[in-house]
Each structure stands twice: as C-alpha cells, then as structure tokens.
Amino acid sequence: MVESQREAVPRNDGGELDTALAFLSFARSCVLKKVAGLNEEQLRRRLVVSDTTLLGLVQHLTDAERYWFSYTFAGDPRYADVDFDMVVEPDRSPDQIIAGYRAAIAESDAHIIAAAGPDVLTAQPVGDSPRTLRWVLAHMTSETIRHAGHADILRELIDGATGR
Fold first, then answer.
1. E strand or H helix at 149, and its extent?
2. Which of 16, 90, 142, 152 has the largest CB neighbor count within 10 A?
3. Rounded-to-integer distance, Cα 31 and Cα 164, Å
4. Per-residue pLDDT averaged across 96-121, rounded?
5. How far apart are CA 86 and CA 55, in angstroms?
C-alpha cells in the first residue's frame, strides 16, 4: 500500500530537550495531518464502538497538553480540572477544536523552552511527588503518538489516506 501522508522522523540530536521536543512535535504533526482536508462530517464520524472520532482525539490531546504542561509542569490552575473527554459538543466547530490544539501546543512549547532543562520538577505532584520535565515530555510523547496511531486507523477508514 502506498503511503500518501509519509513524513520522515526527526533527525534532531542537539541535546536532550531538542531531541525530545522534536519527537513530540513530530507526533503532534502526525495528529494534525490526519485531520487535514476532511470535512466536519468526516471529522465527527464514529467508526469504532467507542465514541472515538478524529475530532475527539484532537480535543482530548488539547486537554492533555494543557493539563500536563500548563497545569502539572507550570502550575497554571486554569487547567487543573480538564476532563479529557473525546465527545465533542455539536456547538464546537472543527476549526475551534483544531485551533485550540494549536494554541495548546504553542503554550506547551513555551513552557518547555522556558525551562532551565529536563531536570526541572513539575509545579504539581504526579501521584505523591513531583516529576521532571523529562518525565512529562516522555509521557506526553507516548500519549500523543498512541492517539496518532488511532488517528491513522480512523483516517484510513474514512478516505484511505495512510502514512505517518
């Protein structure tokens, strides 16, 4: 099968944060690529037993970005109670959801870049103790790439587009 959305993995190797951010950015880009060019019906289409849709995945990842980087890492109380829901309310447009994800990414990147390094501890504990930015980056990269895989499958079912 020909991959119609192929993108090379990052080659960044200029230090721990540079490499980690490059791979997180790559994962985010893969998610955004999966929603590009689809109409609202396609983005909201439910193709699996769960309520997972492409638009719902983006909404969920927006909440994850805000919770882990803005709240847990940086301490911003506005994002303490995000719900991580994948069901998108009908009054929220795809443009709003995707713009929100892009804004959350920009906010997260600003927190990462402003950090003194990967050993900086989170403002909020994870479980019983703080974790490092390194841990948050690893967690969010794995979370994002996991959902990018879900998006790969949903996109292929919608219109046959494949590739990372």
1. helix 133-159
2. 152
3. 9
4. 97
5. 8
